[in-house]
Amino acid sequence: MTREWTDLELLHELQPVVEKLINRHFSMAKDWNPHDYIPWSEGKNYYALGGQDWHPEQSKLSEVARTAMVQNLLTEDNLPSYHREIAMNFTMDAPWGTWVNRWTAEENRHGIALRDYLVVTRNCDPIELETLRMETVNRGFSPGQNHQVQDDLFAESLFDSVIYVSFQELATRISHRNTGQACNDPIADQLLARISHDENLHMIFYRDISAVGFDIAPEQAMRSLHRVLANFQMPGFVVPEFRRKAVIIAVGGVYDPIIHRDDVVMPVLKKWGILERDFTGEAARYQEEIAKIVAELDDTCEKFELAKQRRLEREAKMAEKRAAKKVLEPSAS
């Protein structure tokens, strides 16, 4: 009979691995300062200090870039919830607690830098941004929220946590990187590339802990992997109007189902060897179910491509009609 590990046993068993990975992280991480990536010379006072309040015409970013950057910022703003989640699941005992605090300190820089950039460059409405921040943080976040609809008995485990963030950190890295490229601004591109580097190192940490989990407790790890993939949502889904913003971001090529499959899900599964390994028992059954999820992702990508093409064609026709109408309108005397 396959042994069922408790989370406390897993925490103890994985402790040497965590310590090794933390030391590797310290050797690879590069310190940086958010203020170095902000064009402070573009800043000016807002109305409260005798200046001018924000106006839409002041924003230089495209709708796609602005929507993506604000969504990324609001996701980063929910850091208190993420800290609470990993502190509860990993405990604050060394070396797990060392990682919890280090990860939180590094993540906190991301929200600071993104907010400073957006407010200084006037690329978003700062009042609306603060309203959204308050609402998002009040809603909080827990990976378990992703499962409640399909699994009322869901009880988050250590493997659920580390496997979820293995995918989520990689997805966040790619979202930040593609947002930077969409901004058409070298400063924003440098800033988001810097943030993406942090996210990549975080992903590697969680991914490599999870890899050991598949070796020592394959059935439990595969059960968690199936649960995570079957219900996966980015933490930003709690942001108000998430679906509308996700469509803008997807159609704009920043993050869409194809990117999710090709650049997030499949590389991680390949790194772990999930579809190739010779599992037995319950792990083998979950392997088959995960293969089905991958096939469903293929279908989702095909449907997205068709829907995106139709949307772009509609937008092009509407743009043509507006241009034609403008030509026909009599010029003002």
Automatic annotation (TrEMBL):
InterPro entries: Fatty_acid_desaturase-2, Ferritin-like_SF, RNR-like. GO terms for biological process: fatty acid biosynthetic process. GO terms for cellular component: cytosol. Fe cation 1 binds at residues 76, 107, 110, 199. Pfam families: FA_desaturase_2. Belongs to the fatty acid desaturase type 2 family. This is Acyl-ACP desaturase. The lineage of its organism: Bacteria, Bacillati, Actinomycetota, Actinomycetes, Mycobacteriales.
